[in-house]
Specification:
Helix content: 10-25%
Number of strands: 3
Shape: elongated
Low-confidence stretches: none
Number of helices: 1
Strand content: 35-45%
Mean pLDDT: 85
């Protein structure tokens, strides 16, 4: 299983940051994750307007990691 890990900080308090893991389709090949990640984190940004994404990455993981 792959996940996209977003590192984001609160806009109101930029010193308060955390990582968010978003599971992606387990059938996706890892090499395609960077190309397909942009719409995922764009949607996440719309749903979490109080957070600003600082960086992101694709990583392998298990369902219990998410």
């Amino acid at each position: 299983m792959l996940s996209i890990v977003l590192s984001a900080c609160l806009i109101a308090d930029p010193n308060q940051c955390r990582d968010f893991q978003i599971p992606v389709d387990f059938r996706m090949d890892a090499k395609y994750c960077p190309m397909l990640a942009a719409p995922v984190f764009a949607q996440w940004s719309e749903e979490h307007p109080q957070w600003e994404i600082k960086r992101w990455k694709c990583q392998a993981g298990t369902a219990k990691d998410i």
